[in-house]
Amino acid sequence: MAASILIIGANGRMGQHLIYAAARETNKPTIHAFVRNPASLPPPVASVCDSVQRGNALEAEDVRAALVESSATHIIVAIGVPNSTARSTLRADSAKAITEAIERSEQPVKVVVVSSMGAGGTKIKFGFGIGSLTHFILRHVLDDHDHQEERFLSFFENDKDKLLIVRPTELTEGRAGAKVTLFDGDKRTPSMKVDRGDVATWIAGQVCRDGECFGRAVNITRA
After folding, report:
1. CATH code of residue 56
2. One Pfam family of this protein, by short name (predicted)?
C-alpha cells in the first residue's frame, strides 16, 4: 500500500523540497501539506499535493484532525525558524503537540523528524576549531532540537521502529544532485554542507520504500 504522508512545516524550504521529493517517488504516495496559512504555500507546490491541511502545529487538536483527514501513515516534521539562531522552543513545543495528537487519534503512524547535526549528543567536528565555533553559534537552536528529539524518543520508547531522526549538516539551497552519506556523529564530520533537495530525496526514499533506517537517529551530509 502506498504511503500517505503528512508534512508538517510544508511551507518551509525543507518542507517544499520534501513535497517535490515525495512526488517523484515511483510508487506514488499521497501527499498532504500541513500549514497554518494555506495561502503561504506557493501554488506550484500546492498543486503537487493531494490536500493542504490548515492548522497550527502547536495545537494538538489541529494536528489530530489533519491526521484523521489525511489517513496518514507517515508524518514528516520539518519545523524551524529559517536563518535564526535566537532562543526558541518552537520545535519542542510542536513535538509535544504532535505526539499528543498521535496519541489522541489512536492512528498507527511512523514519524520522521528533521533535526540537526550537533543535536542529540553528536558533535560537529572540523579542523581549526570550526566545529566548536559552529556549535556555540547554534547553541540555542541545538537546544531546541535536543528537546524536540527527547520528546519523540520518549513517546516512541516502546515503538522505536516507528521513528527516524535525521540530522543533516548545514543545509544549502540550489546545489542538489549530489550523493549523500551517513556518518558516525562522534567522529570527524565528512562534509560541512548538504543540499536540502538531496536530504529530502533520501527521506522520501526511506518513507516510500520501507527504508532500513527507521528505529535510528542518523547523521547525513554530502558524500
Report:
1. 3.40.50.720
2. NAD_binding_10
